[in-house]
Design brief:
alpha/beta, TIM Barrel, 8-stranded parallel beta sheet, 17 helices, 8 strands, 51% helix, binds 6-chloro-9H-purine, binds zinc ion, nucleotide metabolism, hydrolase, Adenine deaminase, zinc, hydrolase activity
């Protein structure tokens, strides 16, 4: 239909993609073979059968197991190259890519292998396909702030190879304020700041991401609608929410896409965007998120244009790039 063609073809930015969540089962098994890593699954089909999630933690356990095959700079390059090729097909003109260094440094992988592999894939994709991309380093919130500070120090020799920092992993019990000092240091370093908040967690976590961490965007943020004063704050300050519909469905935040609150977020005047989160695990890349969300909720062309415009506007690309896209 014309609407589905519009959703697929319109230029868009992807602002919420965990690169380790783009690892397809076939690539997981290929890298396991190449690196002689033993997996607790017999084959691709057995791994896929394990993708039956009940909440965020049940997903994270399998996501960290999948990432265990990444050892060398070339592995990180291959993963990011595959994602960026896929994003170009979905008419993504700008990608801001999360990575989880602590998942890898904890297994003895050097920080430089992680960042250099991802960085080379970004520069080559810009050269080969014209997509604009940058990296955002995420701290794992189930670990301590001291461990986040060590991670930041390890990344400092490569400071020019990522544009910002984020906060991800298990939300409940790990509020943003646990990371106040490390985010203050990142802010002083001129890094852009984002954090996951209000995925499973309460509106209070979104407030502290804004007030304590001073983030510029909120990842997920769908629980904001429970707090009218928070909605007013997000709308007034034009703080973008990077919403991930298929992720929310798979992790039972909105078990039925028809009940997703993205239409209400837009109606409330919020700068909502559509993103894929972990596309290899949640059943689709960014265009699949758009198509399934619109099919389920009955939104139309007006909302499609609004979401594409929001994504480009909320990106950390330079003003000249944004002007060229919009
Ligand atoms: C994640 Cl869906 C989600 N939530 C929090 N942290 C994550 N890391 C990767 N995917
Ligand atoms: Zn996420």
């Amino acid at each position: 239909s014309p609407l589905m063609a519009l959703l697929r073809d319109m230029p868009k930015a992807e602002l919420h993609i965990h690169i380790e969540g783009s690892l397809e089962p076939e690539l997981i098994f290929a890298l396991a073979e190449r690196n002689q890593v033993e997996l607790p699954y017999a084959d691709v089909a057995a791994l896929r059968r394990a993708y039956a999630f009940t909440d965020l933690q049940s997903f994270l356990d399998i996501y960290y197991a999948g990432a265990s095959v990444l050892l060398h700079e070339q592995d990180f390059y291959d993963m990011a190259r595959a994602y960026l090729a896929r994003a170009v097909r979905d008419h993504v003109v700008r990608a801001e890519i999360f990575f989880d260094p602590q998942t890898h440094t904890a297994r003895g992988v050097p920080m430089a292998s992680v960042i250099n592999g991802l960085y080379r894939a970004c520069r080559e994709a810009e050269r080969d396909w014209g997509i604009s991309c940058d990296l955002i380093l995420c701290f794992l919130r189930h670990l301590s702030e001291e461990e986040a500070l060590v991670t930041l120090a390890q990344a400092m020799p490569l400071r020019d190879r990522f544009i910002g920092v984020g906060l991800d992993s298990s939300e409940l019990g790990h509020p943003p304020e646990k990371f106040a000092r490390v985010f203050a240091r990142c802010r002083a370093l001129g890094l852009r700041l984002v954090a996951h908040a209000g995925e499973e967690g309460p509106p209070a976590y979104i407030w502290s991401a804004l007030d304590v961490l001073q983030v510029e965007r909120v990842d997920h943020g769908v629980q904001a609608l429970q707090d009218a004063a928070l909605v007013q704050r997000l709308a007034r300050e034009r703080i973008a929410l990077t919403v991930c519909p298929l992720s929310n469905q798979m992790l039972q935040v909105f078990p039925d896409l028809a009940d997703h609150n993205l239409p209400q977020l837009l109606e409330a005047g919020l700068v909502a965007t559509v993103n894929s989160d972990d596309p290899a695990y949640f059943g689709g890349y960014i265009n699949e998120n758009f198509v399934q969300l619109f099919a389920a909720t009955g939104m139309g062309a007006r909302q499609a244009y609004q979401l594409a415009r929001n994504s480009l506007q909320a990106s950390f690309a330079g003003a000249a790039s944004k002007a060229a896209w919009m």
